[in-house]
Amino acid sequence: MRFTSYRQNGKLGLAVAVDDAWHGLTEADTAFPGTLQTLIEAGGDALVKAGNSLVYADAVGLDTVTRLPPLSNPEKIVCVGLNYTDHSAESGFKQPDYPTIFGRFNSSLIAHGAPILRPSYSEQLDYEGELAAVVGKGGRDIAEADALDHVIGYSIFNDASIRDYQFKAPQWTPGKNFDDTGAFGPVFVTADELPPGCDGLRLQTRLNGEVVQEASISDMVFSVAQLVSILSAFMTLKPGDVIVTGTPSGVGLARKPPLWMRDGDTVEVEIEKIGILSNPVRDRMAASAVLVA
Question: Is 247 exposed, middle or buried (CB count within 10 Å of its CB: 0-12, 13-18, 19+)?
Fold first, then answer.
């Protein structure tokens, strides 16, 4: 099943894909099954039942609603750095034997179509196309062999980074958590519709239509199953947690000269069989001025 989250007339909504259309309900309707996040957190067959019921709801024109990230308030957004050997090399790092792990906060999340905002005090806004895995069944000390049973589905993430702030200190947190830089969506696809761990799927990032990143998910150093197992060794994973699995080579930081995203650009991340996450790029000051006006 394929789901998308949205807001219509101030109410949260959830829609499911039916052939080439979307059918959904908002919380204004008594039959609204809940948000994607609450359904995943409920566990069991709650998500499947919701999808089966939404099939019979009215069609939703996605161009007439406000798109939202698939999950807007996950408890944890765990990101993995240096998970493609070629990206580690271009970044000047020795490939680590253990995943480079950092956190994102949900205050940084934006949806498909929303602008990624560049702060006025940095020009170093970079793109990072990535696969996002969503935990459906929580746990601790999960064996790698069982790990994919804990993943309920997948989406796309653009881990847009403010590079000079990322490297102000040994920890990457500031550069990875600016407001309006964590693009997430546009859809959530249940794991049963995709290859195990999305192995073999192609990831491509485009800036203004030009391909800047391209790789196979199989090229990841640590697979989705390995990441779930490794993370669960030191923390309890919970339903709705998001694991952002790393980016391949081609980032703007590594280019000569560097290729930074600027006001007026459009960045797209496409993952085969999942979809295309597209966002315009805007200067925060200009965007704020438009809102005030």
Answer: buried
In tens, the pLDDT along 191-225 reads 999 999 999 999 999 999 999 999 999 999 999 99
CATH code where residue 205 lies = 3.90.850.10
Quick one: which H or E segment has residue 292? helix 284-292
- Amino acid residing at 171: Q
The pTM assigned to this predicted structure is 0.96
Domain count, the chain: 2
Is the domain of 196 the same as that of 269? yes
Residue 293's contacts (CB-CB under 8 Å, 6 or more residues apart) are none
pLDDT tens across 13-39, in order? 999 999 999 999 999 999 999 999 999
Domain of residue 40, residue span = 2-68
* Residues 198, 132, 27: CA angle, nearest 5 degrees: 115
Contact 64, 13 (CB under 8 A): no
Residue 237 DSSP one-character state: B
